[in-house]
Design goal:
This protein has 496 residues and is of the alpha+beta class. The protein has helices at residues 4-27, 54-62, 81-90, 92-95, 102-108, 118-136, 142-158, 168-183, 193-208, 212-219, 221-224, 230-254, 264-274, 285-316, 318-331, 347-359, 392-396, 439-456, 492-495; strands at 65-70, 73-79, 97-98, 367-370, 375-377, 380-382, 387-391, 457-460, 487-490. Strand 5 and strand 6 (380-382) form a beta hairpin. The chain is globular. The structure holds protoporphyrin IX containing FE. Protoporphyrin IX containing FE binds at residues 113-114, 125, 294-295, 298-299, 302-303, 306, 362-363, 367, 392, 428-430, 434, 436-438, 441-442.
Length: 496
Amino acid sequence: MLGTGGCVAVLVVSLLILQFLKMQWASRKLPPGPIPFPILGTLWCFGFEWHQGSLSKFSKVYGKTFTIWIGHMPMVVLNGYHAVRDVLINHSKETSWRIVTPFVRDTMHGKGILFSSGHTWKQQRRFGMMTLRTLGMGKKGLEYRVQEEASYLVELFANTKGKPMDPSSFLFYSVSSVISRVVFGHNFSIQDEIFHKLIECIEYEGHFFLSSFHLLYELCPWLMRYLPGPHQKAFSCLEFIHSFSRKEIQNHKEKKKLDDSWDFIDFYLEEIEKNKGDPSSTFDEDNLLHVIYDLFTAGTDTIVSTLRWVFLCMVVHPDVQEKVQKEIDAVLTPSQCISYEDQKSMPYTSAVIYEILRFNFVLLAGTFRQCGSDTTLLGFPIKKGTIIIVDIASALNDPEQWETPQQFNPNHFLDKDGNFFIREAFIPFSAGPRLCLGEKLAKTELFLFITNVLRAFTLQLPEGMTEVNTRPVEGRFAVQAHPYVICAVPRKTIAA
Ligand code: HEM
């Protein structure tokens, strides 16, 4: 006779077998892929860690459309430039829906821009785009705010007096100050502890997304909701960001400002007023909180990670740094306020920035979507509700599109006469109706931060250090460089 323990073991094994059979049955109607197992899904094929390029390895075996399983969730992957473009452009109507997993549902509630779909997404996105455009106009528009923060970043670097430093915290401060000024209308002091906590929370949210606790939450949300662990910290960080924003919204309501000093919150509060009484309106303070969260999370980690790669690249390739500086010296005077327009006269610098956005694309795979209706992707029938991973990284590394996809090579964006040109397969900001909302702001920030820093300093490794790790940190949703230290040595052209 079996004891209680034996009965439980038999029950668990039976359930696992049942789940295994269910998964094999479901696999029949999905594109090919490795065999999924209960709980593990197809993670065993990844060696239990999802690395950069992991998905492209599967495409060699299963083709450009294949299925992987995260736990019990099947996900159809579109790999390579043509497959990615086909989904983003030709099937945008069916595939523009954002993935809704238990964690996303419990934290985002279908609100904001980044994690919403359908009517809410359309209204919030249209308003977000329009407002960023409006804020970009005028003498004191977005570019002016970036210019001011870029000058302050140069000051922060100068204060290190050429001594070894990790630039990450300065970069986080400068980049989040830009978003702060756009959203709240002001920035914070670098000593402000609450602002530091805000930055820490934004960073934590990004790291949590690829952690095993996140996966556990997606597998058994009914249990994880009540257990302690890093997922509870992710919830409290989200709440901290919301409560920070709530206070800002309250301050905005209390103070009336002149029209030309309006920020994102001012425009949004006006939109709420305008739409009062319209039952189809999604403009309310809850959605505003989520839009603020989206702008901060999507607009901070991405730029900081890219800038960290840029500065690392400069010390690893001093020849590239020298060429960029030569171009800066030829086009700009030492004290001139640099504007985004100047990039038109700087083909090499532009090529370096675009190549870093390609080579060090900051997202591990790309974008997660969910089919809003039945469709056919590359000949495979895909059911409504199926999760799809649009592997943007594979388009940026597609050997059919790039001469040396696995190498850092600014020539990907230069013709034989040294003129800058953009390639069709350059889609780090995605494409189609869900294209990154901050593309213009991101390009402005990257250009102004990089040119201001490299005009003033030569970046180099500390004396005695000859090697630096250029591999990305594993197990992160954002592809990030390992922590490093560099020296920002003042350049003579500036001192003169
Ligand atoms: C290097 C910098 C950046 C990169 C590489 C980047 C890349 C991306 C990508 C790949 C997406 C997914 C689009 C899709 O689902 O197809 C996205 C979405 C988004 N990005 Fe960015 N981004 C950057 C900077 C920014 C900045 C500065 C902002 C803030 C102003 C921003 C705001 C957003 C928002 C709100 C979305 C959601 C759009 C939607 O779902 O409709 N991003 N970004």
